[in-house]
Every structure is written in structure tokens, then in C-alpha cells.
Amino acid sequence: MTPCAEVALSLPIYSTFTYKIPPEFQTVVKPGMAVVVPFRGRKISGVVVELRVRPVKKNIRLKNIEEVIYPEFYLSQNFLSFTYRLAEDYFLPWGEILTAAFPRLLTRVHQKRVKLTEEGRKLLEEKTARLNSKERRILNFIGNKNYTLTYLKRKIKERDVITIISRLEKKKLVEISVSKLKIPSCRPDFPSPPGAQLEIPFGYDDNIVSSLKRILDGIKESKFCQFYLHGTDEWRQVIYFALVEKVIEAGGQTLLLVPEILSSSPLVAQMVRRWGEKAVFYHSRLTPRSLWSAWREVVAGKVKIVVGTRSALFLPLPLLKLIIVDNEADASYYQLETPRYDSREGAFLRAKEENICLLWGSTAPRVETYFKCSSPGVVIQEKNSASPGKIIIDEFSSSNQLFSNRLKKKLQNAFVQGRQFLLFFNRLGRSAMYFCPRCQQVMHCPECGGRLTRSSRGKKIVCSSGHTFPAPLRQCFQCGAPLIEYKGWGIDQVAQELQFLLPGIKIGIVSSETIRTKASLTTVLTRFKKQKIQALIGTEMLLHQSLPNLLELVVALRPEITLGLPDFEAAQKMYQSLAKLRRYLVPGQKSEFWIQTALPDHHVFQSLLKEDYQYFYNKEISYRQAMKLPPFFKVVQVFFSGRNMSRLGQEMRALLNFLKKLKGLEWRGPRLTYHPQNQRVKGIQLLLKIPFSEKENFSQLKKYFLTKKFSPWVKIQG
User: How many whole angstroms separate alpha carbon 4 and alpha carbon 52?
Assistant: First the structure.
């Protein structure tokens, strides 16, 4: 019988591989350890996920594990289970997820070093013609030193450095050696848990005290529980700090997930001031040295509070007691880059596997998360919060004018009085669109579902798949109501209209078209804060910036344009955007949040007007249940792209034939459209709806994709 280990490699491969454990490692290797193994002529890092003993077979020759990278550290069984479930739910290679639990150093365990041989030194001194100019330059640069191959590539500005060095090695003029990187000790140094109890601190109002009591009681039970803090940023932050303090006193660790680095900097600064070296900000933009240092401190149990973006979810915190997901409704939590996953779902899975408390927090909750927290006593609502200004719904629909007469007067008064104001217009493109006020949606092609726009000459209405209709469209395809044509207003044209209305006004624009660098963004925001700019116009990009809540007028222009996006979360995103905008208002009845829309009765605007999120949630959850959308169904977006459209068609037809064999599955499409992440790439898209009760269908779909060499782009929601 041979001791073996199943290893998940840090490669885009969905299966694990069996390796033999050599005698020198048999007492060392454990599940969760990082190792180096041979794979197709290369040395690859991976993580041991299982130990087993198998009989020796003469016809099968197993390769040995060559090295254990961190002999003093291994991932827990709960952590392995969490990463496995996440990989299964999002069609991800398990090894790629596990690799994220280690610092980047894991992928660079070995390095190649180059030095001159005796023959190389002699030849360099002789200055003979046996060397060309590039070879001589490299030998001169190396001299008596011993450089890494990576360093030579960076310093010698030649495209073919590797080829030249390989040629010099064959001539026996240089010697290439492989050395192991020096890895500092990372032995966990867990302090013995102190005798502190999770008790409620003094000095808080009754609402915060009762909230803390419920959450601390849940943490004490040492089993999975979840709570939702629904309230303002300031109220939630007070509770976060009190909870972190009590968890630290009890000897535990806290993971606080935030959507973005920039918007979280003030929160991190406060935590560092309060807890010093016990707090760390962990994100992907840290240098390799900083990542390694932070990882080592976390693993050793010295860091008690980790604030981080998506990548922090995979930090192995040995004393983890609490996970907080702040601003959980932010779309940044869904990582569209490979590997694609929703870190909110990852936090939920990790909390369940580790039997700890999960705390959600937001001003405007996401429908799916709020549905998960629908059990009695889970949602904790802020009471007696100050109203951030009154809301004014200005009904206005026009194809030719951007501002209503009422809004014009309001802007003119603000300009004359010298008051600053903010205009939100979430649109960059200039193509026209048609909107039905009765159906409350943008017109889509009845053939393929693509959005309809005017052609460049304006004589036809076209969709992305090429279907055409005579222009202009006058009636809705579904209800026959007269349509509103939104002409090609872009954010630059909004600025021009405002300049025409208010001559001499100083305007700043925050959008991806005008802001190219971080410095230019800082300049615009600084000038606005110093009141050198009176009007700030912005798109979604503006909502992620830190601005003082000193404004008495904030205007949202035609926010219903968001409903034209091919996204079932469009209404939810519109609600969240408008809720974020209110943060910039001075609390009090003098402040006004002005919403100019053609849909004053839409449930998004009515719920804001009533200040009743439950009203919005009830409407939205009924719609999603009727339309078979999350949280009742999984939505899988499949996109095939490539140069050979004939082959794409074959792959899509093969997929459709496979789907027809599955029961309870629905799909929309296929249709010709653009890549969800790259509008320059065209391909074929299919939208699948899988009921949560049909888990077998989901597994079958995953197996189908794994058997195909031609892998599509896949996004899973729900």
C-alpha cells in the first residue's frame, strides 16, 4: 500500500491529481498543505485536499511530491469544504480558489539564477568575434554577479533575452541554477483565549444596545447565524466597532469585507487609529512583500481585525468568529475577472462551514440577501434616523428638452444664491431609445430581446442582432401605448444644456469619459469641496466617491434609463443609486432630493418617497417570483465568442440539444450580441433559468461544460 495525496493544482484544471508521498514527507504532509509537484515537465504549486492509501499497481507510476512549501501551516478542513462548495457553485477550478488562500509567493517558490562559467569569463576577456553584440552585452552585464532570470529580463531591454541566455547556456558560457526562495517561518502562535466575556458595552442608546445584544448572543453560541443591519453608514459603523472590540477581548478575529479600496480608506484609517497593529487592510493592490507580511501576521493570530476587498475572503484566519459584509448591495462584490464568483455568496458559505456569525449591512439591501434574512429577528432596523432631506418627484417626459420648467427655476435659484448642487445622469451613450410609460420599460426587439435604437441615418430602428423596423416607433409592441423617444443625450450634452441655462456657471464632470486618471478625479473633487466648482455632474462613477454631505440640492435626471439595461437587477440598482445620492444632502427639511422622471408611479420612486424599503422589496420579490428569477431560480449567462462564427453556431446548437434533455429548465435566446465585458467582441448569448429545487440539472450542466474543450464565458447569479 502506498501513501498518496490528492492535490488541487493552481491551474485552470477542474480535476485533482494523485501524487505519491515520499518517506521524508509522510509524517509532515496534511490536508490543506501547499506543495510543489511535477506536472507535464514543470514544477507546479498546489494544495493537498485529501490523504489516502492505495495499492501499488505495476502499470501506473505515480510521481512524488517534491516539496512542502509551508511545513508549519495548513488550511483547516472547514476552509477546504468552503472553497470546494464555492468552486462547485460557480464552475471554478478548485486549485485556483485554494491558491488564493496563500500569498503570491506561493506561485514563485523557485527562481532561476544565471552566472558566468569559467569559459564565459575567459571568452569575455579575450574579446573575440565569437560573440554577437547582444550576447556580449548580456555577459558584460552579468560579470561576476549571480542574477535571477526575472531581474535580467527587466533590466536588459531586449525582446529575446531568454532565447539569448538559452543559447549561451548551450555554448557553456553561462550556468543556470534553480534555487528555492527563502520563506520565513509562519508557525501559528495562537494566544490562549482570555477570560473576557461577550458583554454589552455601556454608553450607547437603546436601539444600538438591543442590536448588540442580539448579535453577541448569536456569536456566543458558536454556530452559524446571520443578521442584517439596515440603516445609515454611521449607525452601522458604531455597531461594527463595538462588535469588533468585544470579539477581540474574547480572543477572536473579525473579517470585514468592503466593496472597494478607495471608498473604504476612511474606515480603515479609523480602525488603525483605534487598534493599531491589530488591524490590517488586505487587498490585491498590496506589494508582494506587504501581502506576505500581512498574511503571516494573520495566520499567526496577531492581527485581530482584517478589512479587505474580495481577495480577503480567502485569508485563513484561525480564530475567526465574525464576518461582516458592509454595503453588501454593491455590485463590486461580484468578481467578473477569472475566477468569476460572488464574494457575498462566498462569505455566506464560509460562515456556514466555519459555524460563525455573519453580519450583513447596507442602507439599501439587495433583494436576494434580504430574502435570505427573512426569518424573524434577523433584520435589525435603525430607528429614529434623521431624514436626509425631502424627496420631490418631478413628472416630466419630453423628447426635445432635458429639464422641466420647475427644475429650471430650482437650478436658477440655486445658481443666483451661489449654492452648490449635484446632477446625476447615469448615461454615457448618445443613441436614442424608446420608452413605454405604461409598461415601464425600454422597448426591446420582439424577435431577439435586444434593445432597439435608431440607425445612424435615422431611417430605421435596429437591434444588435440586425432586425430592423420602420422609424419612428410610435406605439408599444405589448400594450399599444404611445412611446417616449429619449434622444441621444450624453453627459457632455447635459453639461452644455446646463451651461446654456446658467451662463458662467463652473461645472465639473465625473464620468469614465472625462476622468482618465486618479489625479484628474482628485482635482475635480478637491475643487468641488473648495467650492471652486458650483455644479458637479456625474454618472455611476460619482456614487463611489467620498463627498461631504453639505449639499441642499441633489438632482437625478431620468434615472429610469437604467431600466433599459438587459439586467433583472435594473430596478434594484436604480433604487440603490438613488439611495446613495441622498447621502450627499444636509439632513433637514431645507435639503431637497429632486427626481425628474417619466415614471412617477414606479415602485422604486414610490418606496423612496414613502421611505419604505419593505414596499420596494415586496413589489420586487413578487416580480422575480413571477418571472422565475433569483432568489427563486439560478440565472446562468452563457456567452460563446470567437472568430469562427460557424463553429460558435455548432457549439450553441449542441448545447441546446443537451438542454432539451433536462427537465424544469428554461432559457432565453440564443441571440447575437456583444460580450458582457468587452463591447468590441461579438458572439452568441444564452440565458438559462434553473430552479433551486433542480440541483441535478445544475450539476449536469457543469459536467457538460467540463467535457467540452471549447469553454464559454459563464456568469452565475442566484
Answer: 5
Cα 450-452-456 angle, rounded to 5 deg: 125
pLDDT at position 185 is: 45
Which residues is 691 bridged to in the sheet? Answer: 633
Would you list the domain boundaries of the chain?
Answer: 2-108, 110-180, 206-381, 390-430+488-624, 633-717
Q: In 3D, which of 338, 332, 292 has the Cα closest to residue 310?
A: 332
For the whole model, what pTM was predicted?
A: 0.84
Among the listed residues 326, 327, 355, 344, the one whose alpha carbon sits nearest the alpha carbon of residue 218? 355
- Strand order across the 713-717 sheet: 666-674, 682-691, 633-641, 713-717
Mean pLDDT, the chain, whole residue set: 84
Cβ atoms 238, 231 nearer than 8 A: no
Strand pairing of 253-257 and 320-326? parallel
DSSP codes of every residue in 394-445: EE---SS-SS-HHHHHHHHHHHHHT--EEEE--------EEEETTTTEE-B-
Q: How far is the CA of 642 from the CAs of 180, 214, 654, in angstroms?
A: 40, 53, 16
Q: How far is CA 340 from the centre of its chain?
A: 8
Same fold, 206-381 and 390-430+488-624: yes
pLDDT of residue 196: 42
CB 407 within 8 A of CB 608: no
- CATH code for the domain defined by 206-381: 3.40.50.300
**Which residues, in sequence order, are CB contacts of 80 under 8 Å at separation 6+?**
31, 32, 49, 98
SS3 82: helix
C-alpha 103/C-alpha 508 separation (Å) is 41
Bridge partners of 112? Answer: 178
Residue-wise pLDDT tens digits, 237-282? 999 999 999 999 999 999 999 988 766 677 778 888 888 889 898 8
User: CA 636, CA 330: separation in Å to the nearest integer?
Assistant: 20
Element holding 646 (H helix, E strand): helix 645-659
Place of cell 501506473: 60
pLDDT of residue 267: 79
Burial label, 157 (beta-carbon count in 10 A; 0-12, 13-18, 19+)? exposed
* CB of 623 closer than 8 Å to CB of 569: no
Q: Which residues of the chain have pLDDT under 70?
A: 56-58, 104-111, 127-129, 179-204, 262-264, 428-432, 440, 448-451, 454-459, 464-465, 486-488, 549, 709-710
The fold adopted by the segment(s) 2-108 is GIY-YIG endonuclease (3.40.1440)
